[in-house]
TrEMBL record, chains A, B:
GO terms for biological process: homoserine biosynthetic process; lysine biosynthetic process via diaminopimelate; threonine biosynthetic process. Belongs to the aspartokinase family. PROSITE patterns: ACT (PS51671), ASPARTOKINASE (PS00324). Residues 268-348, 350-417 form the ACT domain. One of its GO terms (molecular function) is ATP binding. Its EC number is 2.7.2.4. This is Aspartokinase. InterPro entries: AceGlu_kinase-like_sf, ACT-like_dom_sf, ACT_Aspartokinase, ACT_dom, AKii-LysC-BS, Asp/Glu/Uridylate_kinase, Asp_kin_monofn, Asp_kinase. Keywords: Amino-acid biosynthesis, ATP-binding, Kinase, Lysine biosynthesis, Nucleotide-binding, Transferase. It is an enzyme of class 2 (transferase).
Amino acid sequence: MSRLVMKFGGTSVATLDRIRRAAKRVGREVANGHEVIVIVSAMAGKTNELVGWVNETSPFYDAREYDAVVSSGENVTAGLMALTLQEMDVPARSWQGWQVPVQTTGAHGAARIEAIPTANLDARFADGMKVAVIAGFQGISPEGRITTLGRGGSDTTAVAFAAAFDAVRCDIYTDVDGVYTTDPRITSKARKLDRIAFEEMLELASLGAKVLQTRSVELAMRYGVKLRVLSSFDEYDETAGTLVCQEDEIVENNVVSGVAYSRDEAKMTLLNVDDKPGIAAAIFGPLAEAGVNVDMIVQNISEGGQTDMTFSCPIDQVKRATQAMEGAKASGGIAYTDLVADTEVAKVSVVGIGMRSHTGVAAHMFKALRDENVNIKVITTSEIKISVLIDRKYMELAVQALHDTFGLEKLGGGLES
Amino acid sequence: MSRLVMKFGGTSVATLDRIRRAAKRVGREVANGHEVIVIVSAMAGKTNELVGWVNETSPFYDAREYDAVVSSGENVTAGLMALTLQEMDVPARSWQGWQVPVQTTGAHGAARIEAIPTANLDARFADGMKVAVIAGFQGISPEGRITTLGRGGSDTTAVAFAAAFDAVRCDIYTDVDGVYTTDPRITSKARKLDRIAFEEMLELASLGAKVLQTRSVELAMRYGVKLRVLSSFDEYDETAGTLVCQEDEIVENNVVSGVAYSRDEAKMTLLNVDDKPGIAAAIFGPLAEAGVNVDMIVQNISEGGQTDMTFSCPIDQVKRATQAMEGAKASGGIAYTDLVADTEVAKVSVVGIGMRSHTGVAAHMFKALRDENVNIKVITTSEIKISVLIDRKYMELAVQALHDTFGLEKLGGGLES
């Protein structure tokens, strides 16, 4: 019998009424002949409450206890979902991570799933169970402690179950109706994408489009899981939401698929760094040790043995980055005259697998920004993405201009292909 | 090293601040040289919230899912308590029921603890852990599903751990400062007992004095666990609270130790029952099957082959009892002319191990009630208890009168010994 994975996020199970609505969808898929694995998040707000308690109790908490506490919200939803399905005469039971068991690494708070043995669920499906409801976001470490997978981890739970059980589809029900060409709050011209390639989704996810956890997209790509993002508030049909799929399953798309942005960026510049071999390691080693997520890196042309080194990081890590650099300077690891932090910047990116076969995208992008008098501070590129750091006050303007220039409001618009 | 069990109820861990206060007590016991096993309940109100959700979702719920949902509150408190202790530099970790594992029967919602293997905790204590924080109220069934032990079950968890780990003491921290001669809300003369015998506590617990779960007292009696009930809001000292102990550890006590009451009783009378062999089984079999907790039973003197049969049960089971009796009548199992339910009654009881060696307690009790013109409807007795069913409107009056007549306001008062 075909297996289907359905994941419901926190807003989709926020109340008993919404759990019932989600359960009805599950019931319909059972009626369609599927055995269903349902992955649930905690009811909206619950995880934040638990995280708040942990932080208030212990600012530098033991991550093992953090995991034991914050994983409890999903257990509640899983039991309630199973009960709701039973009320609808659908044979269902709940499973907590350790019962499956979802085996993870011991990296508490950000564990990775290593294996999902299928024997326990298979035995129950063979017994007539139609729905296994799984508490998302959680697993157990090799030491038998509860682990969690990081924020958005239930997406990854869903994809991992879809891979382990060879599911025909993995449907991610959320509070938006799919993946858009850009944030509809910034331009009403934003268009829902029917399909998007894994690689593009990966870039968008890591750029801050919070639809899917990055790790879940990586897993789906590796195991070829058909991943659909759709709204739990709309009626279902076969074309609902956005299908995240292999590049060759996409018949037609624009050269650029989407424009993403990230508001909370900071640009840090070390002035007059001694430009000698190993200087990059001497700078970015201490930053990594301090847990700073360095994103873009630019090294200016060296003049007279000295150079400026610029990098970007999340704005709330500026203090940590500054301390790491001052520490490295004090211990003689690096030498520089000044460290300048610009906390008024944002990152804007265009993403599209069409860029592989198309030249000129960068030139178009820079021209569109110049026409709006937006100054570019840092540029980085990958095979399917171009990102620029600009003044935050121009961010919305830049997103709108790029959305227009690449013709994203309609399929087939933009650059000639 | 000596082991100590400390249990904190819902009001004692209702907020992060109270958890800190409880943790300080634990820290002091560690400083005193103990290895401590802490049993925690859910934060006050949490379990009720979860039970409410289950009932709203599914009136006739799957008890396995009920247990999976309602057990989650204790997991949160256990993690927060461990974190709080760590903040105080006390080496601690949390354990959920399945991690110990606390092995129970499969009677979901009212499971009994069958075994608590000590190996996992012992290994961690040997490693330097000073406090094991255990999520109370929960365990796992032989099938690996989560079970709960019924309301008040964390008391039983505490006593079971004290027995398994051979603890020097089991301290139950709650929102009252011990066991009283009667409810202080009914008479200000109520006096805190320094010591009470297991047998007396058992009678009081089952009579509705909600200080300890009955099962926990049974276990403590069987395994000789020194059980102390004390307030988490008072400063600790060696004589705090009430020690529940063996009869021979009590040097002096009154003949009657306490007056208990139960407000929510109903009296049911079957009129003109055919008085033939097996009639009691024909009545009480169907009641047991319907889940009615029959308490007192009285059979009137038979006249002309017919008799009246009276029993008491909790007031919220009257409907269920009535249906069971009408069903038995309809199927020809029993014959009676009428079923009369009196829902305006209460039970008042005097309890004391001194009654074993003292005669005249019943006579004193009946005289005291007669002096207040309280009519007795049903009487039952055990070796250390006399209970009467009376009109509910006289309940407080009867408790006060009995408290006075047996001189409970001071040690050594009452009947001459």
